[in-house]
UniProtKB/TrEMBL annotation:
Superkingdom, taxonomy of origin: Eukaryota
InterPro entries: Troponin, Troponin_I, Troponin_sf
GO MF: actin binding
PANTHER family recorded: TROPONIN I (PTHR13738)
Protein name: Troponin I
Coiled coil: none
Feature: compositional bias, Basic and acidic residues: 1-30
Length: 197
């Protein structure tokens, strides 16, 4: 009996340890899952696919809406197409008269709109200049390109002109300051020594 009780106690101890290890492993796996978060890679893929489908549907709906709006505006502006082929001469003249009036009205509207646009542009530029004046910021004019070398050459020539002292000296023609050698210049009629031979 003592052996059986010892075996049972030993078995119970082993079972308790196994249960403890299982519990720790389950907690560790739960912690890993908690760290992974709600978005698993499979869920991310599904979500991406759903978002793409939704975006494609929205884009398609937007294109259809724009096309319908365009058709409506074209019909509104152009009117219905008149059947000129099966009409007699009076009906054709009537149709052409209505088209002519419509074109005239459209040209008038176009002219008025162009005038308004020019007026608004002028006002905008005027207000911009006023704002810049108040701020103290002025539009810098675009500068033309100038060669660096031309400036350098001009400076060098200026310096060379400054060193040319002979141009700045006064010419004196009094004979008191002339040297004796200059007085003994050979006359033009006399020949030099090397020419005499």
């Amino acid at each position: 009996m003592a052996d059986e009780e010892a075996k049972k106690a030993k078995q119970a101890e082993i079972e308790r340890k196994r249960a403890e290890v299982r519990k720790r492993m389950e907690e560790a796996s739960k912690a890993k899952k908690a760290k992974k978060g709600f978005m698993t890679p499979e869920r991310k893929k599904k979500l991406r696919l759903l978002l793409r489908k939704k975006a494609a549907e929205e884009l398609k709906k937007e294109q259809e809406r724009k096309a319908a709006e365009r058709r409506r505006i074209i019909e509104e502006r152009c009117g219905h197409c008149c059947d000129v082929d099966n009409a007699n001469e009076e009906q054709v003249k009537k149709i052409l008269g209505t088209y002519h009036k419509r074109i005239g009205n459209l040209e008038d509207e176009k002219y008025d709109l162009e005038y308004l646009v020019k007026k608004k542009d002028f006002e905008i530029s005027d207000l911009n200049s006023q704002v810049n004046d108040l701020r103290g910021k002025f539009v810098k004019p675009t500068l033309k390109k100038v060669s660096k070398y031309e400036n350098k050459f001009a400076k060098l020539q200026k310096k060379a002109a400054e060193f040319n002292f002979r141009n700045q000296l006064k010419v004196v023609k009094k004979k008191e300051f002339t040297m004796e050698e200059e007085e003994k210049e050979p006359k033009k009629s006399e020949k030099a020594e090397w020419q005499k031979k």
